[in-house]
Amino acid sequence: MKVFLLILTMLIFQISVRAQLFGSKTEKENLQPKAASEHIVSSVKASISDITGWVLKEDTKWISAKNVIPNPDPKYILPDKVLGQDNLAEMEIRETQVNGKTYAVLVLKYYMPRYEFPTLKEGFYPGKVLDFYVFPAERILQILPDTLSLGVSHSINLDVAVSGRIENYESKDIDFEVNTAIKRFAGNRIVNPTNLLVAVMPYSMDGKDHVKFKLIKTYPGEKIYQPFLMDDIVVSLFNHSYYECMRNIFANFFNSAAVLALADMPAGEQPSDFNGFFIRGVRAYDRNDYYNAITDFTNAIRLMPNQKFYPVYGYRGNAKFKLGDMEGSLNDLNAAVSLKPLDKQFLSVYAQVFLNRGTVKYFLKDLAGAKDDWKRASELNEPKSAEYLKMYFK
Do residues 84 and 165 share a domain? Predict the structure, then answer.
């Protein structure tokens, strides 16, 4: 049962009205199954950019800024005035397979001070930099805020296998750079120079759920990073500065890759239970192999027909939508809607079933039904539903 609870925190991949209506390809082309990517690393599974930085000023007052932990000294000048003590423009998460094992790829985008005339330190401008960290996917399960105690600081060692930095990344092929590093790691031709720890503290304030977090960059030696895992250090990590975002945003970010951490099934091995078929189905879905995904989800349901687990129907309904089977998709999403989770912490994820069913109804010309489902999703704080309501029902 524990594995089901972990899967329930997973984000069901959304099906998009906009992608179908406004994509560069025709609707028929969009609905065709796509071949698996040749890249080692997957496309971006989730991202976060709505981040606030906080710092304690003179031990009396907290000040904040969007995507920046400000410098508390009022006399600071460039570059600290722009970049602060630390800054984080965006986080992305991807997935890869190395020697039969699943790894997550955490990408951090931020700015570093650059000068047109470095020797004179004149002509300052913020230079775009990207760091990436490849680590065992099972570590994600320790970061999920739904599994952590409210108001308690936690520190997780990601045990990074390989990392790297890409400057001026907009002018470079990020996938190529990351793939090259992963290939070198897979061939034992690289020694990782850095490690990363993530400190997390979920908390509630004024009826809203938030997460404080810190990204602690260290060297890989255990003696170097071990102090940040000690209780007396962990409790003080958020005393002076931290980043913050809404709890559901943080959870969905890591949940998008969490299911891949639940099992590492060797290539070619045939699943034998509900969990195995479901996980393999999610992996097939993620690489756009919708026919095989539907087969695996169907086998999972046949093995446990009475299992009240809405994601298996939600995913199968999404896959059928991708293949143009609107009626079949609607039937599965109706089944998913009927399996409402009892635990309130999963309602924000469950809300995506209403978002997806509304999308299917929209394509079936059931505009009233689509509007009603998107309203129900919005009532459960699903962010994209409000965008759809505004765009298609002005």
Answer: yes
Distance separating alpha carbons of residues 178 and 169, to the nearest angstrom: 11
Q: Are strands 90-98 and 68-69 parallel, antiparallel or unpaired?
A: unpaired
| CB distance 307 to 274 below 8 Å | yes
pLDDT tens across 63-117, in order? 999 999 998 876 777 777 789 999 999 999 998 888 778 889 999 999 999 999 9
What pLDDT does 212 receive?
A: 97
Residues 238 and 360 in one domain: no
Q: DSSP characters for 75-127? A: T--TTHHHH-SEE--EEEEEEEEETTEEEEEEEEEEEEEEEEETTTTEEEEEE
Each residue's pLDDT tens digit, 2-48: 444 334 434 455 565 544 443 334 433 333 333 333 347 888 888 99
Residue 177 · residue 164 · CB < 8 Å:
yes
- Residue 274's identity, in one-letter code, is F
Q: Is position 282 within any domain?
A: no
Cα angle at 247 between 202 and 147, to 5 degrees? 55
